[in-house]
Amino acid sequence: MEIIIHCLFSYLSTVTFGIVTNVPRKLLNTCGITGAVGWMLFWFTKNLESGEIFANFLGAIGIGLMSIFFSRRKKMPMIIFNIPSLVPLVPGGPAYQAVRSIVLGDYISGVHFIIKVIMTAGAIAAGFMVTGIVERLLKRLFDRKTTPS
């Protein structure tokens, strides 16, 4: 039951953010699927005790790969799928805790949360960087196969 709840709410949060950011209505479902896949990769990896940073990295790779697939299939830019799909992975809770700790004077705890936010954001960026590299490699590979010799 927990898997269904995570899948449903990650889908809904992605679709809702897609509505807020004016994603075309016909693409909301694919954005929701992309966000749900990214979140489920994150959630399963985190539950395997692999660490939250690595889980965010894998979630971002999943979102990136799904975005590449859907952008080619729907003939739309990847960013339409990337941005709303990231919402479930964004470290909003630790960012709030960092600000709260600093305001309350607990600087050690605040710095701990800031480092966690920075590492999470870096893992997400690295995941997208990896998918960008994979996309370029695949594009070169397919361009060589289709080019007449």
Structural class: mainly alpha
Helix share, percent: over 70%
List unreliable stretches of 5+ residues.
none
Number of strands: 0
Q: First CA to last CA: what distance?
A: 55 Å
* H-E order: HHHHHH
Largest sheet, if any?
none
SS element count, helices: 6
Shape: globular
Summarize model confidence as the mean pLDDT. Answer: 92
Radius of gyration: 17 Å
Summarize the structure.
The chain has about 150 residues and is mostly helical. The protein is built from 6 helices and no strands.
Blueprint (SSEs and pairs):
Layout: H1 2-20, H2 28-47, H3 52-74, H4 79-86, H5 92-103, H6 107-146
Task: Explain how this protein is built.
With 149 residues, the chain is an all-alpha fold. It has one domain (1-144). Helix content is 82%, strand content 0%. The protein has helices at residues 2-20, 28-47, 52-74, 79-86, 92-103, 107-146. α1 packs across α4, α2 (28-47) crosses α4 (79-86) and α5 runs antiparallel to α6. The protein is globular, with a radius of gyration of 17 Å. The model has no long low-confidence stretch (mean pLDDT 92). The chain crosses the membrane at residues 27-45, 51-70, 79-99, 111-134.
